[in-house]
Design goal:
Elements lengths: L6 E2 L7 E5 L3 H13 L4 E4 L2 H4 L7 E7 L7 H10 L8 E5 L4 H9 L4 E4 L4 H14 L12 E4 L2 E4 L4 E3 L4 E2 L3 H12 L7 H8 L11 H13 L6 E4 L3 E4 L2
Parallel strand pairs: 2-3, 2-4, 4-5, 5-6
Antiparallel strand pairs: 1-3, 7-8, 8-9, 9-10, 11-12
Helix pairs in contact: 6-8
């Protein structure tokens, strides 16, 4: 039975697929058939709840366009607007064959648009096609979205950071800040921008000074590598090549 939370397969792991569809029979059908193809699949029935889920671990999202206040298209926009998830491909599923709806979805960043009812064979083939086009898949099939910044290897899939000699024990927030800056090298982010990108809406209390506190802790953990994070008055924080 699905709920507004995530239900997942027992073989959940890095690089899983998220299916967001309000029709339980469709989610169950996709979950069963995609798992038979060897994928790990998680399902949700609410796009708004999905937008607050732990999305960076997913390799691809299948989102029903839905007829709700917060639609699958809204989820698509949220995914593509967040630097930590913008790389995740999104396929929109919809009953609408309107040219305007299809073009709008692609303009919002959709990687594919599949009409309902669909052929399972075609859908699976198109999922494979989108995954092949995604450059962060290693030859062995593992999700290895690794960004190099100085001596650091920042793995977006496992949310871990390694120096030349050892892993760094970063908190979720510290990692999110580092990943945001590393994915947007040479781009300065103000304290306020970082606060709104990293802290979920329900976690904010309008005290963006907490950004400085977390970056100070992050720099201490980085030690000799802390120089990769620079701060310019009036511009904010950045990692520069």
């Amino acid at each position: 039975m699905m709920s507004n939370g995530i239900t997942s397969s027992s073989n959940d792991g890095i690089g899983s697929i998220l299916v967001v569809d309000e029709e339980e029979h469709i989610s169950s059908l996709l979950k069963y058939n995609l798992e038979n193809e060897g994928y790990c699949v998680e399902t949700m029935n609410d796009a708004a709840a999905a937008s607050h889920a732990d999305l960076p671990k997913f390799r691809i999202i299948l989102a029903d366009a839905m007829n709700r206040a917060f639609t699958g298209r809204d989820l698509l926009k949220a995914v593509k607007a967040n630097p930590l998830t913008a790389h995740i491909p999104v396929i929109i599923l919809s009953y609408s064959d309107s040219e305007d709806d299809i073009i709008a979805a692609f303009n919002d960043g959709a990687d594919d648009y599949i009409l309902k009812p669909f052929s399972l064979r075609e859908l699976i083939a198109r999922v494979r096609s989108v995954l092949r086009r995604n450059p962060i898949v290693a030859a062995g099939g593992a999700h290895t979205a690794i960004i190099k910044a100085g001596n650091l290897d920042i793995d977006l899939s496992t949310r871990t950071v390694r120096t030349l000699t050892s892993p760094l024990p970063l908190t979720k927030t510290e990692f999110a800040i580092l990943a945001l800056l590393a994915k947007n090298k040479n781009t300065f982010f103000s304290r306020r921008q970082i606060y709104h990108e990293v802290w979920a809406e329900g976690e904010r209390n309008d005290n963006d000074r907490i950004v400085d506190t977390n970056i100070s802790r992050l720099r201490k953990k980085l030690g000799d590598d802390s120089s990769i994070i620079i701060n310019k008055s009036g511009l904010g924080y950045a990692i520069q090549d």
